[in-house]
Amino acid sequence: MIKKNSINPDLVEERKKCTFNTLELTHLLDGGAKKTEERKSRETFFLEDPQLQSKVPLEYLSHKEKYEEAVRKACIIFGKVQELQNQGRGGMDNFREILGGQLGSAILKDGNPLTLHYVMFIPTLMGQGTMEQQAEWIQKAWNCDIIGTYAQTELGHGTFIRGLETTATYDPSKEEFVLHSPTLTSYKWWPGGLGHSANYAVVLAQLYTKGKCYGIHPFIVQLRDEETHQPLPGIKIGEIGCKLGMNSTNNGYLGFDQVRIPRTNMLMKNSQVLSDGSYVKSPSSKLTYGTMIFVRVVIVQDAAHYLRKAVTIATRYSAVRHQSQIKPDAPEPQIIDFVTQQYKLFPQIATYFAFQYSATWLWDVYNNVTSELEAGQLESLPELHAVACCLKAVSSADAAQGVEICRLACGGHGYMTSSNLPSTYGLVTAMCTYEGENTVLLLQTARFLVKVWQNRNNLEKFTTVKYLGNDLNRDRPFQRSVEWIIYALQQTAARKIELANRHINERVQKGKAYEDAWNESSIELVAAAEAHCRSFIVETFYNTINELKVSKELKVVLVQLLNLYGVYTALRLTGDLLRFTSITGKDIETLQAWLEELLALIRPNAVGLVDSFDIRDEVLGSTLGAYDGNVYERLFEEASKSPLNAEPVNKSFKLYLKPFLKANL
Ligand SMILES: CCCCCCCCCCCCCCCCCC(=O)SCCNC(=O)CCNC(=O)[C@H](O)C(C)(C)COP(=O)(O)OP(=O)(O)OC[C@H]1O[C@@H](n2cnc3c(N)ncnc32)[C@H](O)[C@@H]1OP(=O)(O)O
Ligand SMILES: Cc1cc2nc3c(=O)[nH]c(=O)nc-3n(C[C@H](O)[C@H](O)[C@H](O)COP(=O)(O)OP(=O)(O)OC[C@H]3O[C@@H](n4cnc5c(N)ncnc54)[C@H](O)[C@@H]3O)c2cc1C
């Protein structure tokens, strides 16, 4: 039914209006023309493989069938990844695309049961294993001779990992650890792939040796027989059931009944238990948390990718959809011409760019700090932890909200699963919880900020908090510029940190314990961490755009997006700006007028911008967002796949409706 090769005329017109070269932007976002070519070839390699097509839309499968289909595809995908590696075409880009929102969510729409193997099991072996342990385990894991997961969270504790209850007690007579789950709440609960896919796990447990507890440590534990996949003796394992989304990830539970593992299965790069049971301390107890930092860093990139996918769908749909009237007797406009619609969409486009640049910055810093840690230098770890926590929290929260705004922007059709917006929301909103619940992570950033604030005469060693050295009383008069907005956001963040710190101190002076004072001030602390993060994101966007070497035409558009992101952020924080800077009501009107001007300036390039993201139709997976804009034909085609439409009369008519109708005659 879909008219092949026919592009919706509205989209044809939109593409004519574009003022810059979309290919130039595609190359910029990919990191160069060669990278674009490589990405496209990878996409073709995966997306055009007939084995990776699904006959029936996922939504119509049962929970069990979904899982089985996901495992089938996951095995093919990673078989293909190994094929690429053998051809010398392997590398990080493959993994990022295949496990994240860029490509992975196209093939496995509702999560991948093997993700944790690559995203957490292997990185933990690499980051926490000694050289000998790496030699023993990593090759097996890369070859997929074993499949692992990361089992940290328990039924009773996810956030407070010092409170985990699983124990690993050293028995020097046999040189073994005994893993045990002493209570129901100590059962591991949530690890991806744990239910029925993984046969190994890195298990985080409280280490006991010589009668003393040394806190949580990572252990490699075999869960299932390598041949039969039967759970090993003492292992109680299963899947935790249906969730809001990610229903193919096979999140599982796990209990231990006195399970023995060799001493050498404790990952001992940072701390060790010697054969006689003596404990050798790590240079920092927080090195055990290294894998979590890694995943928080990659989540920022993933959040950006999901957001650009959603906004591509909603922008193309808004260019094709006609509804209502702006003037009497005028034809129904494209809904993208309603300014309120532009206000829903264009800030999401700008937000994607903002997150993309922060994600790139964070990835580079993460790699530098990791090299420093390898060399035994720990100085930069607290700042990396603080910035990774707040960027993970703000990007996941804003992306989830942005995807929901895009869904609402598509009206009723956005509510269809075939729009792919509901399931995208399911994937993105999970990010707000996993890998550290967002409020908790913002409080971690606040802890760092308060400490820095208390020692703000000594800011040289930091990168992200230099502004805390500025004189808070030095006012910069309002200007309609991003530079002023950055100043205002930093001023707001600094003031909020100062206030929260002051309120903690006041509470302490009134006799409260510091921890209680902290808890009572925590609403302000979270707000301070968020403000700090927002000022960082705008500043990073600004610095990146200033350094870009691109054509004049593209630069103009990127600066418009930067300005839009800045003014949109500022207007969302109007109350804060009025409170912490000398901005006036009149100045706010100026910002509002600027926002409206920017929406109008971006309007002709909206479709061009999302086209530049160059997301294939299979990756969008949406009836509303395809490149050709044949929305209504696609909606009909998808409706025809409903199993209820396979027969004109459903058996429920005979069974229930007919007798019911008769009874009411
Ligand atoms: C192969 C390539 C792949 C590419 C892939 C690309 C695709 C992406 C796909 C993504 C899919 C991802 C799927 C992942 C699924 C989710 C997995 C999980 O949730 S797993 C489960 C995830 N679970 C969670 O995330 C649990 C969240 N909970 C926690 O992280 C912690 O318990 C806590 C941080 C909240 C508190 O910890 P606690 O020990 O009580 O700490 P205190 O508060 O007492 O602070 C003490 C001191 O420690 C400091 N510090 C703290 N952390 C760190 C750190 N990481 N570091 C350094 N320092 C740190 C802190 O600053 C403080 O310093 P100071 O002030 O004293 O100087
Ligand atoms: C889809 C998904 C996949 C996951 N995959 C894995 C996995 O593979 N491996 C794994 O080990 N875990 C996994 N998890 C678990 C995840 O990491 C935890 O759910 C997460 O860290 C939050 O912990 P929690 O569930 O205990 O929440 P809780 O900490 O109970 O949070 C509940 C509320 O309490 C508040 N709260 C808690 N502590 C504080 C505090 N100190 N200050 C202020 N407020 C606080 C929170 O802000 C929140 O509002 C996954 C979770 C999800 C949803």
Automatic annotation (TrEMBL):
Keyword NADP: no
Gene3D superfamilies: Acyl-CoA dehydrogenase/oxidase, N-terminal domain, Butyryl-CoA Dehydrogenase, subunit A, domain 2, Butyryl-CoA Dehydrogenase, subunit A, domain 3
Domain Acyl-CoA oxidase C-alpha1, residue spans: 289-450
Single GO biological process annotation from the record: fatty acid beta-oxidation using acyl-CoA oxidase
Domain of life: Eukaryota
Entry-linked Pfam families: ACOX (PF01756), ACOX_C_alpha1 (PF22924), Acyl-CoA_ox_N (PF14749)
Pathway(s) served: Lipid metabolism; peroxisomal fatty acid beta-oxidation
Domain Acyl-CoA oxidase C-terminal: 483-662
Record keywords: FAD, Fatty acid metabolism, Flavoprotein, Lipid metabolism, Oxidoreductase, Peroxisome
Residues holding FAD: 153, 192
Active site per database record: 435 (proton acceptor)
Subcellular compartments: Peroxisome
Matches recorded under InterPro entries: ACOX_C_alpha1, Acyl-CoA_ox_N, Acyl-CoA_Oxase/DH_mid-dom_sf, Acyl-CoA_oxidase, Acyl-CoA_oxidase_C, AcylCo_DH-like_C, AcylCoA_DH/ox_N_sf, AcylCoA_DH/oxidase_NM_dom_sf
Gene Ontology molecular-function annotations: acyl-CoA oxidase activity; FAD binding; fatty acid binding
Essential cofactor(s): FAD
Acyl-coenzyme A oxidase N-terminal domain ranges (all copies): 21-147
GO CC term (a single one): peroxisome
PANTHER family: ELECTRON TRANSPORT OXIDOREDUCTASE (PTHR10909), PEROXISOMAL ACYL-COENZYME A OXIDASE 1 (PTHR10909:SF250)
Family recorded in the similarity comment: Belongs to the acyl-CoA oxidase family.
Name the record gives this protein: Acyl-coenzyme A oxidase
